[in-house]
């Protein structure tokens, strides 16, 4: 595996490659990331994994400065997963000039996580757009845990006619159901024991919806109350049409229930897709 830090070296490494597959990450990799890399390897070669903690997507008071940076460990894990190129630029390399031009997200970015993290998705879409321009991959693989993010990236690619196939990969989970996340390491031992309850709450919403209780607001409110009773601070629980990200109605078949909530100082997100017949 080549470990590359400059745009010039990236272009040299990709010269002559007919296609590549990109896996963008912020590093501090876990098994979920490695599953994305292994899946990317089944789609084409070379596989390029980027590691870059993107300041633009962090808000004031968020964890940009303390976000774990574990590049040497990440490189070892990526090599074992079949990555061909690790692109790990520093901030000056990726943003050589003040980044005054940002991708403007659509209105769907202002709900759910966007309602609680102002400017977050503009930062996400901007860095993904830049990575697409630099790598020019035929495909890019993203985890489905960040459902709203994946939806917005797909929308950007479609509306800007980008020649990139965006591939979603199912959320990787621990044995107890907790979605794997780099931020899980912030959890105390007691919080880690409690953390799977977020996924369990989503499962109960799915079961109730499929059992005939289809009022989205009532289902979401019930899940919020259950989590708050256990000591969580809930940003939101919401049901959406998984295709349009709009409020579901009686015609919706493909549903997704999404949630973001805090245990102590750690903000966790999760979602669960299901079909309601």
Structure, explained:
With 277 residues, this protein is an alpha/beta fold. The chain has two domains: 2-169, 3-Layer(aba) Sandwich (Rossmann fold), CATH 3.40.50; 182-269, 2-Layer Sandwich (Pantoate--beta-alanine Ligase, Chain: A,domain 2). The chain has helices at 7-14, 31-41, 71-81, 91-94, 113-116, 120-135, 147-159, 189-194, 197-210, 216-229, and strands at residues 2-4, 21-25, 47-51, 85-87, 139-143, 165-169, 233-241, 254-263, 266-275. The strands form two sheets. A six-stranded parallel beta sheet has the order 1-4-3-2-5-6, with helices on both faces. A three-stranded antiparallel beta sheet has the order 7-8-9, with helices on one face. Strand 3 (47-51), helix 3 (71-81) and strand 4 (85-87) form a beta-alpha-beta unit. The radius of gyration is 19 Å and the shape is globular.
Helices and strands in order, then pairings?
Blueprint: E1 2-4, H1 7-14, E2 21-25, H2 31-41, E3 47-51, H3 71-81, E4 85-87, H4 91-94, H5 113-116, H6 120-135, E5 139-143, H7 147-159, E6 165-169, H8 189-194, H9 197-210, H10 216-229, E7 233-241, E8 254-263, E9 266-275
Parallel strand pairs: 1-4, 2-3, 2-5, 3-4, 5-6
Antiparallel strand pairs: 7-8, 8-9
Helix pairs in contact: 6-7, 9-10
Structural features:
277 residues, Pantoate--beta-alanine Ligase, Chain: A,domain 2, Rossmann fold, 9 strands, 36% helix, single chain, 3-stranded antiparallel beta sheet, 6-stranded parallel beta sheet, 10 helices, 2 domains, alpha/beta
